[in-house]
Amino acid sequence: MHDVLVIGGGPAGTTIASLLAEKGYCVCLLEKAHHPRFHIGESLLPMNLPLFEKLGVLEQVDAIGIKKYAAEFNSLKTSLAQDTFYFAKATNTSPAFAYEVRRSELDEILFKNCQKKGVIALEGMTVTHSDLGSSIKKTIAVDAQGKQHEFTSKYLVDASGRDTVLAQQLNSKQKNPKHKMAAIFGHFKNVARRTGRDEGNISIYWFQHGWVWLIPLKDGVMSVGCVCWPEYLKTRDSDLKTFLQTSLSFIPEVGQRMKGAELDGEVQATGNYSYQSSIMSGDGFLLIGDAYAFVDPVFSSGVYLAMQSATRGADLVDQILRSTADNKQRVKQFEKSVAEEIKAFCWFIYRFNSPALHKLLMSSDEASQHPVKQKLKSAVISVLAGDAYHNSQIRLPLLAFKFLYFINILLEFKLNRKFTLFKKQKIGE
Ligand SMILES: Cc1cc2nc3c(=O)[nH]c(=O)nc-3n(C[C@H](O)[C@H](O)[C@H](O)COP(=O)(O)OP(=O)(O)OC[C@H]3O[C@@H](n4cnc5c(N)ncnc54)[C@H](O)[C@@H]3O)c2cc1C
């Protein structure tokens, strides 16, 4: 009988397990894989750093990671081709850098750390079912030999990532109707990097079929991925590797950087990765990280959001286990904060491919040097750093940025209409 049972030993699961063990609870964590194991999600945010510090693993992460001082955006859609967003220019005090890491290494550090804190963390244990009906939760897991094990706990946390164990069981998983993208990715050797301080920056390239990431890892390998529109994916008539290489060749600079590239491992794909569960919590259970929702990797927010919801989740579970009082209000507050933090990224994610946003974000003209525009950009960088939720200083500038965006959309719409009318008149003549 454990106080808390956690399903999944990724960033969300290991974070909540560690924090609850520190508070004195008897925590058991079940992980289906064996660390170290491959996982996608290698680019982190500055606001991950305080969370690593809280867990006591910042030094270890520093040893496996390469410092990421900025996110670099390249657009083929506007004449203003490139801009680098340095985290040091964010409004307020988020750290001036983040890390690029191999997730196999990061997740192993987090897993071992939670064991060190007293969590009974078992690998090779796949959770197949949890009985949510009674006050004592009964969870069934199967080990590598196919043997069934039963665990009982006062509280259950689902941190099973994209497997979404509880959301599947509750039938609460909903695909995101606004965002039906897919990603193809792999690790490559011999890809040209930026130099000096910029070596660890993530490069993002927009192109006609979606966007591409280049994430430099510490050992000289580059993680390369292509996020594509579903219509484009339907045109695939080759194997994944060829399709990825063809897609990358549409972007001249990426082609240049990958001239001598060699694939290191396999090319993998994940489709329709955007979803949300309509249930975040219930009587004696909670869904955190990707087990609750995932929107898009473009702003490297996944690991941060997973660990942040786990940190808040630890406080909530602690309060629930400590008091017999009605915790409805606390649960509501927790759900609101998790949803709002995801929402802060969503505004940008849903407009990421819009030329109006490119124009606003990446202008290098004289007007963009204006102090007011710089202030707006600093606020956007705070969002990119993961500092959107607590930072009250950016609320007004972000509102102004969004207002400017809509003015741009309106102007674009008017121009398009004028052009169509003009074309119709010409055809009439
Ligand atoms: C294409 C793509 C690119 C991405 N790039 C980035 C990026 O650059 N930066 C970033 O921050 N995020 C990125 N992400 C998101 C990131 O991968 C996730 O948000 C993050 O890993 C979520 O952490 P988690 O702990 O919730 O889930 P996970 O990291 O997925 O951990 C879940 C764990 O649960 C285990 N598990 C699953 N089912 C069971 C079961 N039945 N029983 C027991 N254990 C189970 C799994 O083995 C796994 O170890 C990307 C996502 C995609 C799809």
Short structural summary:
By secondary structure, this protein is α+β, with helices and mostly antiparallel strands. The chain is built from 13 helices and 21 strands.
Commentary on this structure:
The structure is a single chain. A hairpin with a 5-residue loop joins β14 (210-216) and β15. The strands form four sheets. Strands 1, 2, 7, 8, 9, 10, 19 and 20 form an eight-stranded mixed β-sheet that branches. The protein folds into three domains: 2-65 and 101-173 and 276-349, 3-Layer(bba) Sandwich (FAD/NAD(P)-binding domain), CATH 3.50.50.60; 182-270, D-Amino Acid Oxidase, Chain A, domain 2 (2-Layer Sandwich), CATH 3.30.9; 355-428, no CATH class. Helix content is 39%, strand content 23%. The relative contact order is 0.16. It has 429 residues and is an alpha+beta fold. The protein binds flavin-adenine dinucleotide. The site of flavin-adenine dinucleotide has 41 residues, from α1, β8, β12 and α9.
The ligands bound in this entry are:
flavin-adenine dinucleotide
- In CATH terms, the superfamily of the largest domain is FAD/NAD(P)-binding domain
**Span of the ends, CA to CA:** 83 Å
User: In percent, how much strand structure appears in the residues?
Assistant: 15-25%
CATH architecture of the largest domain: 3-Layer(bba) Sandwich
Shape: globular
**Overall radius of gyration:** 23 Å
The total number of structural domains is: 3
Helix content: 25-40%
Structural class: alpha+beta
Q: Tally of extended strands?
A: 21
